[in-house]
Amino acid sequence: MWWCNLSKVTLSVIKADVGSVVGHYKPHTAMIEYAKRKLLNAEEEGLINSGYAIHCGDDIILIMTHNRGPNNPKIHGLAWDTFREITEKVSKPMKLYAAGQDLLSDAFSGNIKGLGPGVAEIEFEERKSEPVIVFAADKTEPGAWNIPLYRIFASPDNTAGLVIDPTMHEGFIFEVLDLIESKSVELKTPEDLYDLVGLIGTTNHYVIARVLRAKDREPAAVTSTTKLSLIAGRYVGKDDPVMMVRCQAGLPAVGEVLSAFAVPTLVSGWMRGSHIGPLMPVSFKKGQNVVSYFDGPPRVIAMGWQISNGKLVGVDGKEPADLFEDPFFDYSRRFASEIAIYLRTMGEFQPSRLQESEMEYTTLPSILERLKSRFRPVE
Ligand code: F6R
Ligand code: MG
Ligand code: MG
């Protein structure tokens, strides 16, 4: 297979919302089962090394390892066919809510980017031992990763290894994407720290696409950066992003990575993609990966694996470690609930509600149209 680079492994995470039960609550079990079967077939055919399917809120997440590199048409095709078939064979016949929502175009020609689903891919030389964490969030957008990634890779207050581990002491390189202008810039911490924060503080404009270790440009983290609103030319939903982080032995420890989620951050999304809400870290084993209160609040799951000989190894076969299951994170969930309740006391007033240009829905033009004749010039 000439296109394969067998010395390197690729972790591809591709996700889409193709419908859910009782509004945007969660996908039907038959949808996840379909995805699992499809990935198992792909394993048996040798298309991928291993695959796993799960949901976060109303999104289905496909996690695949292979040796075909990022942007491979066969891998993207597998994800596209899976989402399309689930839509046609499961969600549409059952009349599930928003069936096929994220499949914005029928024009698949080898790359799924730009067609609706979110994509994050990372290729690396497998180390002696390779722990990775895959995060998936619902009811928010890619800018939600800005603070956690800043904490993990740039803040010595979060990551002790930045100070203590000589391999990390040189810092990290952040590839920052300008979502509006479609261009990117590399910034190196600690030297460019203030410039980095200057940009990524504007979470709806600048997002971190990739993080590399400065010493040797070893890939450390990758996010999905598609903005559905820009793809569709109008707002069609928050992106519900994914992210993966490699850990340990010269990269942040698993515990340092998870620390970044202990105190919930405020993110854009939530009800009607038009509010700010706290990002709540939840357990998928306990079934907390659903959205309810005011269609939220926004939430994040963390799946831990070892990548061994190109395959996913979890705590039980391929079953990933459920990293927010720890009772410690009950504190974060409680804290997030209190923030959520507090924010809702503000109703439809900014900043609880997003600014006009960031809202998924707006009635303002029609309100203005109706009130046109009642406006009077101010002297
Ligand atoms: C946000 C989201 C939901 C819906 C809301 C209204 O991304 O998916 O909060 O916006 O449930 O949905 P419709 O307009 O379909 O009734
Ligand atoms: Mg939905
Ligand atoms: Mg969603």
Explain this structure to me?
There is one protein chain. With 379 residues, the protein is of the alpha+beta class. It folds into two domains: 1-125, Alpha-Beta Plaits; 127-355, no CATH class. The protein has nine helices and 16 strands. It has helices spanning 29-44, 73-91, 146-154, 161-164, 193-200, 228-232, 254-259, 328-344, 364-371; strands spanning 8-16, 50-56, 59-66, 118-125, 131-138, 172-178, 183-189, 206-213, 218-223, 242-246, 266-269, 275-278, 280-281, 299-308, 311-313, 321-322. The strands form three sheets. Strands 5, 6, 7, 8, 9, 10, 13, 14, 15 and 16 form a ten-stranded mixed β-sheet that branches. Strand 8 and strand 9 (218-223) form a beta hairpin. Helix 1 packs antiparallel against helix 2. It is globular, with a radius of gyration of 21 Å. The N and C termini lie far apart (76 Å). The model has no long low-confidence stretch (mean pLDDT 94). Bound molecules: fructose -6-phosphate and magnesium ion (MG) (2 copies).
